[in-house]
Design a protein that fits this description.
Length: 190
């Protein structure tokens, strides 16, 4: 099926700390269910979160957040990575920028990237841009991404669809598609 899930910036500072986003609460249970089903379906789950150094340009703009080796840069407890998952660190909005993500996706033979996490119109968007430039297809489960405001979220989704051709979907539909392909595989084996 050649898909992988990206979990972007679901970190303590983004959900509860210096960049607290109340709307993140809506997506936590949805991401949790999606990644649990992904592990069962052998779809790789790749966490990419900020681990900033003080010299990073974003620090001027947003103030210190998710600084490398601090609690704020840890994944929230609700959806912690398992041993089976991959965890990469980033220093810009994009999960691709000098993180090794592209190499990892190629090693895993991934063709379609499913983006989850924060924020629809910032890091998800820059990650989608870099995925698009590299030839990956994009799926965005809208119940697994969010922004500081409803407006930012809705406009963010619209941009992903219009500019990168992202398929806007939801976690239930994606899980359903994995179950269907599993059934189809089982039938093919018989
Ligand atoms: Zn940042």
């Amino acid at each position: 099926m050649e898909e992988a899930i990206l979990v972007i910036d679901m970190l303590k500072d983004f959900v509860y700390g210096s960049l607290k986003c109340d709307r993140a609460q809506r997506i936590i249970p949805n991401i949790k269910r999606l990644i649990e089903e992904a592990r069962k379906a052998n779809v790789p789950v790749i966490y990419v979160g900020d681990a900033h150094l003080p010299v990073d340009p974003e620090i001027q703009l947003w103030g210190p957040h998710a600084m490398k080796n601090t609690k704020g840069a840890e994944t929230i407890d609700e959806i912690r990575p398992t041993e089976k998952d991959y965890v990469l660190e980033k220093r810009t909005y994009s999960a691709f920028h000098e993180t090794g993500l592209d190499l990892l996706l190629r090693q895993l033979n991934v063709k379609t990237v499913i983006i989850t996490g924060l924020h629809t119109n910032i890091c998800d968007r820059h990650t989608a841009a870099d995925a698009y430039f590299r030839g990956y297809k994009l799926k965005i489960p809208e119940d697994c991404v969010d922004s500081f405001t409803e407006k930012d979220h809705i406009e963010g989704l619209d941009y992903l669809k219009r500019i990168y051709g992202a398929e806007i979907t939801n976690s239930s539909k994606i899980i359903e598609s994995w179950k269907k392909s599993k059934t189809a595989e089982a039938i093919a084996v018989k």
